Amino acid sequence: MSERFMTIPEIRRTAKRLLPPGPWGFGAGGAETETTLRRNRQAIQRLAIRQRVLVDVRKVDLTTTFLGMELPMPIAIAPMGSLILFHPQGDVEMVRGAAPNGNLAVVSGVTGWPVEEVAQAAKGPLIFQLYFVGPRPWAQELLGRVEASGYRAVCLTVDVQVYSRRERDLLLRFDPRAARAAAPNPMPPDLDVQARLTWDDVAWLRSILHVPLGLKGILTAEDAKLAVEAGVKIIWVSNHGGRQLDHTQATINVLPEIVEAVDGRAEIIVDGGFSRGTDVIKALALGAKVVAMGRTMLWGLAVDGAAGVARTLAILQDELSRNLALSGQTSVRGLKPSLLCRAE
Length: 344
What we know:
By secondary structure, the chain is of the alpha/beta class. The chain has a single domain (about 1-330), classed as TIM Barrel (Alpha-Beta Barrel). It contains twelve helices and twelve strands. Helix 6 links the parallel strand 6 (about 125-130) and strand 7. The longest helix has about 30 residues, at about 295-325.
């Protein structure tokens, strides 16, 4: 079925047609007025690529490295919760979709499957996204299982101090979190833990982990500096896809200041509104090492499971390769901000 899809918008339209209103609204929506959701896309679209010509582009290299891992391209699957709403095998099927070429996938901390089972289904590298929602012994036990299963890093999500008001869900009286009720990585009842997280918890996580620690949800140079000073190895520039704080900044707009603050001391991932190959080029030119995509992968999962995810990745790979060539670039490595300019 998936091979019939030729474009990313076609996959999205099919997913909207197939999904019930509740899951579609949860996947597509953002917080409150959805200003942040729209701002992410608008900020990306306001950047133009400066096209260079008369360059031999018969060979375009999409490979990159991340934390020493060899990746086929600088696109990762972002973590998403409640994937059972979109496919019966959810997280397991999502990482299977990344498997054909060994793409990087980030597994949600609220996965509906044991972290071990998800890892067994993957053929490419995995990162685990941690929602720190319980006491330290609970987190230490879970992360021990994560490390034993072969995950290459852990990223603590830091922008969920409280759960936002997602008005599409509220209007539909739809609670996507109900799908997590029978989660095999059980959460303690104290969900206020995230509201009281501090840099002390970051230091504690570093002390118990044997893999690199990242922070997901960084939006300012100030916090990026604190993170690298704390020994964090992944700075994940994210506004939760517009799903947490409404009216905050677009991630691509804050990316340059964060890259400057990090100054090569950590790897940088960015997400937030990225859905096409040209979007990836823009993020790489501004200093990101990897671009993570959530909704774009979600629609692939909804239309055809792992095959739909794999098809989505294949289309993105083709877009990225062709548009690099058309830009006069032969590699995803070494792209510079001078490749871009503002264009209203």
